[in-house]
Amino acid sequence: MQRREFLILGLVFTSSYAYAQMFQTVPEANATLIQSGKDKYACPNCGMHLVKFYKTSHTHENHQYCSIHCLYEATQGVIPKDAKVVDTITLELIDVNKAFYVVGSKVRGTMTRTSSYAFGNEKDALMFVSDNGGKVMNFAEAYAVAAEDFPQDFSKSNPVAPVTKIEVPKDAKCPICGMFVAKYPQWVALYDGEKKFYFDGVKDMMKYAYARKLSGDKFYVSDYYKLAKLEATKAFYVIGSNVYGPMGSELIPFASQEEAQSFARDHNGQKVIAFDEITEALVKSL
Ligand SMILES: [Zn+2]
Ligand SMILES: [Zn+2]
Q: Which pLDDT belongs to residue 15?
């Protein structure tokens, strides 16, 4: 085995290990999977593993999604009538219209900062709220909250000159989390080394850099508004804002410090930092 392959396996192992700690994960024997063939285990929207994110899983038509976030994206805001969701307690798929959703608890969600877990029994939902906080909602309300994950800022993106973007092959998956990167053009980052690797956010890009002890030289990020390809070492990053990427909290890149500061003002950003100020501890805390 070549050294590079070995390192990639190491990363896959590390991330599976992290998944093993997650609240969403269940033993495969307890998961009901409705898709078949080679796609059985993958969310058709983001590519993530359905057993690892089982407790937030939703089905619609013949598809099974990892989360209400991916269901929302796949249905494009048109509320689906036939959807089902996993009951967090029984692990069975239940009609979303009969489910009690706990939204915004402190238990981490899937693909979103605002977590959302469903229960077939209202008492179970209330018990979950008393342990973990959050609010009980019906499906339509939880679906509306999922809509808030999708940035409204695209309208501000009005490039005067054509920009060079990072071109992502359709099947490229983030080596850290396994998601299809092309689905998230706003968040694309790139390692352009002996081989190219694509990431669905600066956070996963940095995890990769730390795992392989790479300097910032061959890394590129996408300007959040204009999507222009930027050298990672020259960009400015907003942290702690209320805009979340596909993997949650992010370092959000901008070409200039002014743009980063203006975004931080609009979106409760905590701080604007340069590439050199990004540390492994900071990335872990996101
Ligand atoms: Zn998904
Ligand atoms: Zn990723």
A: 44
Confidence (pLDDT) at 178: 93
- Å from CA of 260 to ligand 1 middle: 29
Instruction: Compute, in angstroms, the gap from residue 219 CA to the centroid of ligand 2.
Output: 15
Centre of ligand 1 to C-alpha 160, Å, is: 34
The pLDDT score that the predictor gives to residue 16 is 43
Distance (Å) from CA 127 to ligand 2 centroid: 33
Q: Which runs of consecutive H residues, i.e. helices, occur in 215-268?
A: 257-266
Residue type, 61: E
Q: 161 C-alpha vs ligand 1 centroid, how far in Å?
A: 34
Cα(240) to ligand 2 centroid in Å equals 18
Q: Which ligand is nearest to the CA of 188?
A: 2
pLDDT below 70 — which residues of the chain? Answer: 1-21, 151-162
pLDDT of 151 reads 66
> Cα separation of 200 and 173, whole Å?
8
Counting ligands in written order, the one closest to the CA of 45 is 1
Other CB atoms closer than 10 Å to residue 183's CB: what's the count?
17
239 membership: H or E segment, kind and range: strand 236-239
Q: Which residues contact 120 (CB under 8 A, 6 or more apart)?
A: 87, 89, 90, 92, 94, 98, 99, 100
The pTM of the full predicted model, rounded to 2 decimals, is 0.55
Length of the chain: 286
Distance of CA 277 from the midpoint of ligand 1 (Å): 31
pLDDT, position 111: 85
